[in-house]
Every structure is written in structure tokens, then in C-alpha cells.
């Protein structure tokens, strides 16, 4: 019998890479999606298109406990990857109540459903470097204390502690991956990396003239999402459940990202980028850099894609995508 995996947030960047990885390993892969996603698959499930026939998608809502319990009881997963969340930090300031309610309750419901209906299932929680916020030390590691700076960060700290508590109180095999920023050509357009690479492609192709951004000095530890989902899987294959930082231990500013991305198509970012206060955050996380030495030692995991390679990969993909859009328009 193949192992069964259940993924929440399967339609997102990480969910799509993780599904591909697990299918390659011979897993039976199930995903939780919203009813509206199933009604509009071309638009909402686009990242899963190449593998959709090999997945089983279940309609449920992370705001509705009975629907979660039903799916977990029916599938009886061996591994559960809880990735779903309202994950855009800036939006969480505008909609703090729904971010906090959905993210915390969603995690709580998943943990409780697994405990009640599939207690032998191994549970992965997608924690985040945003939990470190106003950083207490650099680089950040598993023992660094948290100081979240946004409703999103707060919801992830709560999810982290819920996961730890289910591990300690109910002996669930439950753990958190503290993932630093991870990007790819499948990244959502609201995040700064994809916003930049898409704009670079559009400017190069004459489809846009400028790019408006917020704080260009912020520094992030940016890795490749395809590498990071491997770490998620490795964590659940260990004998003992523990939390791990997944990062590259390098950080770069938004400005450095701009230099490389525009430079890749022989443009100077200073000619196109405008700073717009609208994109500044109420409370900024200025700088993040993660120490992944525990993951390296215990999981044998290291990142394979360096920063410059990641930027080029994303710009090239957006050039290709926008070229396709242009050519369909001109037909
Ligand atoms: O911002 C600055 C912004 O939205 C990165 C999520 O996946 O990673 C992500 O969170 C930096 C910030 O990602 C714009 O102020 C400047 O300092 O791409 P981002 P994030 O907030 O770091 C963590 C690990 C997660 O868990 C999250 O779910 O870029 N920045 N100008 C901008 N950011 C955006 N989005 N848009 C701008 O115009």
C-alpha cells in the first residue's frame, strides 16, 4: 500500500512542488481545497494542472471543523502537511482579525482532527521566519526567541506553540518547519520577488513602464521553494519529531534583488523603480538570516540554488510567460 499524504494549501507554490515530490516518491496524494477552487480550476488550481489527474482533491474549509474532521477520517493519511494560511504579511495588517482567526483556528482544527481521527499520522506545520520579526540574534536558529511584528507573524507563533503542545500533550508526531522566504517562478504576484521579476519582464517587453515598491532596504534570506519542500518531507521521516530552521544563511536587500533582476535583461533598475509609501509596512521586519546547520546535520539538507541563480530563474520564467501573453494577444 502506498503511503498517503494530505496537504492543505495544495494549490499554492509550496503545495504544488510538494505534491510533485510526493508523487515521484510513490505517495497517494490528497489535497484540501475550497469549493470555489474546484468550480474555477483553470484560474485557481493552475499550478496543479500538470499533475491534477494524479491527485485527489477534497472540498473542505479550514474555517469549518466538521469538514476537516470528515476529510481526515475518510483519508486516514500517514503524513499531513499543513501549509494553508493567509500568507501575505502586508495584508495581515489590513485584515488582522481574519488572518489571526483563520490561521490559528485552521492549524488548531487540523491538529485536533488528526489527533481524533488519525493519531498515527505525522503532522508538519508551516511555521515562518516572520516569527523572529524584530530579531533577537543573527543568524536566527531554532533556539532564537520570537518577536513577531505582524498579525501574520503572531498567527504563526501561535501555530508553532499549538503544534508543540499537541506533540507534548498528546504524543502526536507533530513538528514545525521554520522556513525562511522561499521563491520560484510559481510565487504569487503579491510577494516582492515575483512582483519584481514580472515587472522586469513586462518592462523589457514594452508591456509596462515602471515598478512601484515599498522599503528597498529590507533584507531577506531568499531560497528556492523546490529545495524547501524536500526539507519538509525529510523532517517527517525522522525517528523523533523536532522543529527545524530551513534557510540559506545568506541575506540580500530588495535593492540587490532589483539590481540582479533588471541587470539580467541589461536594464538599470533606477530608471524604472519608484518608491511608494503605500507599500511600506506598519511594522517592518528589517533583516532576516537563518542558520540551517541543524537541518544540515540531522536531515542532510542543504539549499542547492543560490540567490543569483534564483533571480535569473524567475526573470527568465516571467519573460517566457509574458511573451506567451503578448503572442496570444497579437493573434
Ligand atoms: O516581502 C519588502 C517588504 O511580501 C519581503 C511570505 O511568504 O516570507 C514571506 O513574507 C520584503 C519586506 O515577503 C514591497 O517590506 C518592498 O520587507 O515578499 P514579501 P515577506 O513579508 O518576507 C515569509 C517567510 C512568510 O512566511 C510569508 O508568508 O520586501 N517590500 N516593497 C515589498 N514587499 C511586497 N510584498 N511588495 C512591495 O511592493
- The oligomeric state of the chains shown is single chain
CATH topology of the largest domain: Rossmann fold
Low-confidence stretches: none
List of distinct ligands in this structure: ligand F7E
> How do the SSEs run, as a string of H and E?
EHEHHEHEHHEHEEHEEEHEEHEHH
How many extended strands?
13
Helix content: 40-55%
Strand content: 15-25%
Q: What is the spatial order of strands in the main beta sheet?
A: 3-2-1-4-5-6-11
The tally of helices reads 12
Q: What would you report as the Rg, rounded to the nearest angstrom?
A: 20 Å
Mean model confidence by pLDDT: 97
CA-to-CA gap between the ends? 49 Å
| Coarse structural class | alpha/beta
Shape: globular
Class of the largest domain, according to the CATH hierarchy?
A: Alpha Beta
Largest sheet: 7 strands, parallel
So, the CATH homologous superfamily of the largest domain?
NAD(P)-binding Rossmann-like Domain
In the residues, how many domains can be counted? 2
Q: What is the CATH architecture assignment of the largest domain?
A: 3-Layer(aba) Sandwich
Amino acid at each position: 500500500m502506498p503511503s498517503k499524504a494530505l496537504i492543505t494549501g495544495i494549490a499554492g507554490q509550496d503545495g504544488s512542488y510538494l505534491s510533485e515530490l510526493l508523487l515521484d516518491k510513490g505517495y497517494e496524494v490528497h489535497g484540501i481545497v475550497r469549493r470555489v477552487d474546484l468550480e474555477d480550476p483553470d484560474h485557481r488550481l493552475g499550478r496543479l494542472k500538470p499533475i491534477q489527474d494524479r491527485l485527489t482533491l477534497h472540498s473542505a474549509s479550514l474555517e469549518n471543523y466538521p469538514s476537516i474532521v470528515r476529510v481526515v477520517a475518510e483519508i486516514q493519511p500517514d503524513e499531513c502537511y499543513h501549509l494553508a494560511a493567509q500568507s501575505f504579511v502586508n495584508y495581515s495588517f489590513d485584515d488582522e482579525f481574519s488572518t489571526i482567526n483563520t490561521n490559528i483556528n485552521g492549524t488548531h482544527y487540523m491538529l485536533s482532527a488528526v489527533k481524533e481521527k488519525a493519531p498515527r499520522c505525522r503532522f508538519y506545520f508551516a511555521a515562518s521566519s516572520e516569527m523572529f520579526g524584530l530579531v533577537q540574534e543573527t543568524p536566527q536558529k531554532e533556539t532564537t526567541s520570537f518577536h513577531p511584528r505582524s498579525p501574520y507573524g503572531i498567527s504563526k507563533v501561535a501555530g508553532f506553540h499549538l503544534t508543540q503542545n499537541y506533540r507534548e500533550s498528546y504524543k502526536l508526531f507533530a513538528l514545525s518547519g521554520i522556513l525562511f522566504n522561499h521563491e520560484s517562478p510559481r510565487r504569487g504576484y503579491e510577494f516582492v520577488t515575483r512582483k519584481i521579476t514580472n515587472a522586469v519582464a513586462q518592462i523589457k517587453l514594452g508591456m509596462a513602464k515602471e515598478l512601484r515598491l515599498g522599503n528597498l532596504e529590507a533584507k531577506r534570506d531568499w531560497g528556492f521553494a523546490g529545495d524547501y519542500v524536500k526539507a519538509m518531507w525529510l523532517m517527517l521521516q525522522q525517528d523523533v519529531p523536532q522543529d527545524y530552521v530551513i534557510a540559506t544563511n545568506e541575506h540580500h536587500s530588495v535593492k540587490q534583488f532589483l539590481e540582479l533582476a533588471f541587470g539580467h535583461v541589461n536594464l538599470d533598475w533606477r530608471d524604472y523603480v519608484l518608491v511608494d509609501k503605500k507599500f511600506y509596512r506598519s511594522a517592518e521586519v528589517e533583516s532576516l538570516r537563518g542558520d540551517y546547520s541543524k537541518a544540515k546535520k540531522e536531515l542532510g539538507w542543504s539549499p542547492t540554488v543560490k540567490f543569483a541563480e534564483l533571480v535569473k530563474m524567475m526573470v527568465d520564467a516571467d519573460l517566457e510567460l509574458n511573451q506567451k501573453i503578448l503572442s496570444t494577444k497579437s493573434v
